[in-house]
Amino acid sequence: MWGGKLVFTTAMKFSIGLIVLFTVGGLSGVTHSVAPSDTQQTDTYYIVAHFHYVLFGGAVLGIFSGFYYWWPKMFGKMLNEKLGGWNFWLMVIGMNLTFGPMHILGLQGQPRRMYQWTEGRAGEGFFNFAFWNLVSSIGSFVLAVGILLFLINVVITARNPTKSPLDPWNARSLEWMTSNPPKEHNFDVIPIVHHLDEFFHRKYEEDPATHTMRQIATAEEIMAEQERNADKHIHMPSPSYWPIVLAGAVPIITFGMIYMHLIAVIGGIILLFAAFGWALEPSTAPETDFENNSSQGTALDKVGH
Predict the structure, then answer these.
(1) Residue 300 has what pLDDT?
(2) Does the pLDDT of residue 287 top 60, yes or no?
(3) How many CB atoms lie within 10 A of CB 48?
(4) Can you tell me the distance from the alpha carbon of 249 to that of 275, in angstroms, rounded to the nearest whole number?
(5) Whole-angstrom Cα distance, residue 14 to residue 276?
(6) Closest Cα to residue 106, out of 18, 32, 34?
(7) Cα distances (Å, whole numbers) of residue 247 to 25, 146, 238, 275
(8) Which residue, 295, 274, 293, is CA-closest to 285?
(9) Would you list the domain boundaries of the chain?
(10) Where is coiled-coil annotated (predicted)?
(11) CB neighbour list of residue 198: distance below 8 Å, 6 or more residues apart
């Protein structure tokens, strides 16, 4: 990234938060490689703190980063960046307030899954069980407010009629060469890829005099060119209910294998019925759905000609 310019969008903040908190969780887990330390910490709140830093820091923050980055691609609208910043800081602060004190509680011997204790086991001063559990409880509410703020952001965005730009992040990869959200067939023209970052190289080229990148096209211009060259009669397979019926049969089978074999047999019958239905259904919808394209024929007709 030398000579580059980092833009700290909400998605970037969550990604950086992921790296930092996941690293903290990983380092706290190193102590478990030492047998005496692991013996002391097993089944204490230290373990709870460790795996929540790994799982929450390494998974949940990544999920929220993905939400903010991919929202315009999925729904054609941008989540509010200002609310996103508040969402990030409340979640990070709340997460550290919730699970950070659990390291201290665990090292002092508080067992996991314990919600009350006698006065004699509560500790004193800095190591007081009640104080750190109170801090942890306050942190959980801060974390909850952060997640609530994300839900509010989603509602506000859904009610906002403003559409997102075609290329809101000045992206490099091919998926941003489609509309937001993408059409059913994704690309009007299947792109021919010449570079690892094809979309970026269609927007920028190197200036031989200065060895810097200069813009030669915008995302709007690139997509307008695709539309001009597009096949106006792109053939799509007909929608089908059979895939979801087949998918629904799988949990029935697994449930039956655990609790009652008869249920598994019923699930297997449903799966076979759905598989045959999916395989044997017509590849095109009824003619009434394709009246406007009847003169163009199907993709197979075009191959034949």
Answers:
(1) 34
(2) no
(3) 19
(4) 10
(5) 45
(6) 32
(7) 36, 35, 18, 10
(8) 293
(9) 10-116+124-159, 174-228, 237-284
(10) none
(11) 173, 174, 177, 191
pLDDT number for residue 194: 87
* Cβ count near 26 (within 10 Å): 14
Tokens coding 174: 């091919």
Residues 91, 92, 97: CA angle, nearest 5 degrees: 95
DSSP codes, 95-159: HHHHHHHHHHHHHTTPBTT-----GGGS--GGG-HHHHHHHHHHHHHHHHHHHHHHHHHHHHHHH
Stretch (H or E) spanning 82: helix 81-107
What 3-state DSSP class applies to 169? coil
* Residue 106, both tokens: 């665990």
110, 65 contact by CB (below 8 A): no
Q: Which residues are within 8 A (CB) of 65 and not within 5 positions of it... i.e. 6 or more apart? A: 10, 11, 12, 13, 14, 15, 18
User: Token pair of 8, please?
Assistant: 């700290």
| String of DSSP letters for 275-304 | HHHHHHS-SS--GGGGGGGTTT--HHHHHH
Tokens of 265: 């047999």
Is residue 68 within 8 A of residue 79, CB to CB? The reply is: yes
pTM for the predicted model, two decimal places = 0.77
Closest by Cα among 75, 144, 131 to 104? 131
Q: How remote is the C-alpha of 164 from its chain's centroid?
A: 19
pLDDT in tens, 179-199: 889 888 888 888 888 888 888
Q: Give the span between the Cα atoms of 293 and 238, in whole angstroms.
A: 14
pLDDT of 143 above 80: yes
Residue 195 has which token pair?
A: 């570079």
pLDDT digits (tens, 9 = 90+) for 231-282: 777 777 778 899 999 999 999 999 999 999 999 999 999 999 999 999 888 7
Q: Is the pLDDT of residue 92 over 90?
A: yes
One-letter amino acid at 300 equals L
